[in-house]
Design a protein that fits this description.
The structure is a single chain. This protein is mainly alpha-helical. The chain has 2 domains: 60 residues; 100 residues, 434 Repressor (Amino-terminal Domain), CATH 1.10.260. Helix 1 packs antiparallel against helix 3, helix 4 packs parallel to helix 7 and helix 5 packs across helix 6.
């Protein structure tokens, strides 16, 4: 799963490298004649890896361009990746790790650590606090995230206070 713009750029570079490797391999007639099964296996492997990256890129871009005022339906590949729902919801709602930390009474370092380790180091209560803040729940058998008005109001107030602080520092 792509979690930030740095990982997005890295994934885009690797997707292109896999595509380029396949372009070079397709014109290598000698390799194709010597070992057709190996040649095909490499082609298929590169294509599968490239497609996985392209799918992750598309998912990340969908999250980034999501309207944060709208609920979002989220998918996970399997239940042991349920923690990805929290990261996806935060990205879709355009909330920074610092803002999320303040909203759910955790530290920014904790949220960063949770996300870096896919919430494997979070307690159940930490997980629930973040899920509640982001409004992640199961609706009609699907995971949906919709922020509650209480948290949205707090987020707006935090951002306004931050803008006032930034304006004050700039004027000083």
């Amino acid at each position: 799963m792509i979690k930030n713009d740095k990982q997005l750029i890295y994934s885009q570079e690797w997707a292109e490298k896999f595509a380029e490797a396949n372009r070079k391999l397709r014109v290598n007639e000698e390799k194709r004649q010597k070992d057709p099964d190996g040649w095909q296996l490499i082609q298929d492997s590169n294509k599968a890896l490239q497609q996985k990256l392209l799918d992750e890129i598309a998912e990340y871009e969908m999250l980034v361009f999501h309207n944060p005022n709208e609920p979002i339906s989220l998918k996970v590949e399997c239940m042991n990746k349920i923690s990805n729902l929290l990261i996806k919801a935060r990205i879709a709602f355009k909330i920074t790790q610092k803002e999320l930390a303040a909203l759910c009474s955790r530290t920014e370092e904790q949220i960063k650590s949770f996300e870096d380790k896919d919430y494997q180091n979070a307690s159940f209560l930490d997980f629930l606090a973040v899920a509640d803040t982001l409004g992640v729940e199961i609706v009609d058998g699907k995971f949906v995230a919709k922020m509650d008005a209480f948290y949205l109001e707090r987020l707006v107030a935090m951002r306004q206070a931050e803008n006032v602080d930034a304006s004050f520092k700039a004027a000083s």
